[in-house]
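Our platform keeps sequence and structure together, in a single record for each protein. Such a record has a labelled line for the sequence and another for the backbone structure tokens. The tokens are whole numbers drawn from a learned vocabulary of local backbone shapes. The remainder of this section carries one protein's record, kept here as part of the documentation:
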Amino acid sequence: MSTLGRPRVHLRRVGSTNDHARALALAGAPHGTLVTAAGQTAGRGRQGRSWSAPAGSSLLMSLILRSGEFAAPTTILPLAAAVAVCDAAGPEARVKWPNDIVLPRGEALAKLAGILVEGRPQQGWAVLGIGLNVAVRLEELPPQLRDSAATLGRTREAIEPLLATLLIALERRLGDPVAQTLQAWRARDALREREIAWSGGRGRAAGIDEDGRLLVTLASGDRTALLAGEVHLES
């Protein structure tokens, strides 16, 4: 059994599990404190994007992690978390850099889960937020999301057992050496050798470096490394 997830606060409805967990962290809640919710009214992902899911259909969680209690450096934390989500979601799950969990849909990639890490490194804590579509019916999502979203297609009763599986996977992956985390992430890389575009250009994805930056081979043959931002598959 994982030591993560205790104590646990479960809410029927909340603005954002990450916001609630941040408030608990600031109040001194211990490492491993878990906030879950059946529904969110202001769930969000990276770069302020909203996270939408019908109430009771997704695993919505945020963990308080305090430095010294886990091995993964802060910069590697999102990568380790992404691998853990893939472990729990199944063999088809892949990671779209930096930390979206996707399922292949033909040549496209459909988003199954998102990860958002926030916190105050100078105070030694972070909040790891995860939203995973477990029992979502795609037809219930807003029309603009249906083509780009994925779901495990399980029942709502599967959410709690999946949470237990994910907590065990997180504890294991957060304790892995960095080299092992990078190797596991690379094995799940959804973008490698695919043509991508981002705000600064386009090229062919070539994996990640030791700091988790996305390597891209440009048309000139030169290689660049992206530290952050959004990338898209070239159609």
